[in-house]
Design goal:
The protein is of the alpha+beta class. The chain folds into 2 domains: 1-30; 37-189, Rhodococcus equi virulence-associated protein (Lipocalin, Beta Barrel). 27% of the residues lie in helices and 43% in strands. The chain is built from 3 helices and 9 strands, in the order αααβββββββββ. Strands 1, 2, 3, 4, 5, 6, 7, 8 and 9 form a 9-stranded antiparallel beta sheet that branches. The chain starts with a helix and ends in an 8-residue tail after the last strand.
């Protein structure tokens, strides 16, 4: 009987070691760890600081403001974009969408026009909090927004985009200057599109 217990103990030990190794490999792979189907504020701040490459009070304040408005997100997008405008503007970007309920990331591209009292150019890193998205395919549509309603916190700008109950909250930090209130939308797609409409 003790021989049987020893074999079971060894088998359980090997199984537990394999599970721990797999969990550690998942963390090393860069996938966020979360509990349930949403991300906590501390998890989002950690992911955003790692993405932007800085630990800034302004970034933590921007995230705190979004959490105060919208609560815990169930996903996020890490990406980069370029934009420019004189009166008519365009914006192009690409990134990866991660939902709390899924391990794999979904590649996503975005593009869109804007019209308004706006001037300048911008190259930016974008960290977008995602709310009420059930599956990755839900991102592939147009999301309207009023960028003039953006607020600035410690060098980071935040805007909201909403469509069909889904809210996106992009946090941007970059080089360049965009002034004024421009009204437009972003269209998210599976592939790069050069026509912004």
């Amino acid at each position: 009987m003790s021989d049987e217990l020893t074999r079971r103990s060894v088998a359980l030990g090997i199984g537990a070691s394999a599970l721990l190794g797999a969990a550690h490999a998942q963390e090393l792979d860069g996938a966020p760890t979360q509990s349930g189907t949403t991300f906590s504020e501390s998890q989002i701040v950690r992911e955003a600081e790692e993405f932007f490459g800085e630990s800034a009070e302004g970034l933590a304040n921007a995230v705190a403001h979004i959490f105060e408005d919208l609560g815990q997100p169930n996903g996020f997008i890490k990406g980069q974009e370029g934009s420019g405008s004189a009166f008519f503007g365009v914006r192009y970007g690409r990134g990866e969408l991660r939902l709390a309920s899924l391990y794999d990331a979904t590649p996503v591209f975005w593009q869109g026009p804007s019209v308004g009292l706006d001037a300048g150019g911008n190259a930016a890193k974008v960290f977008t909090l995602v709310y009420n998205m059930n599956q990755p395919d839900d991102i592939f549509r147009r999301f309207p927004g009023v960028e003039g309603s953006a607020y600035l916190v410690g060098g980071f700008s935040v805007t909201y985009q909403r469509k069909d109950g889904i809210t996106l909250a992009p946090i941007r930090s970059g080089v360049g200057l965009r002034l004024g209130a421009n009204i437009g939308y972003l269209r998210y797609s599976r592939n790069r599109r050069y026509f912004p409409f």
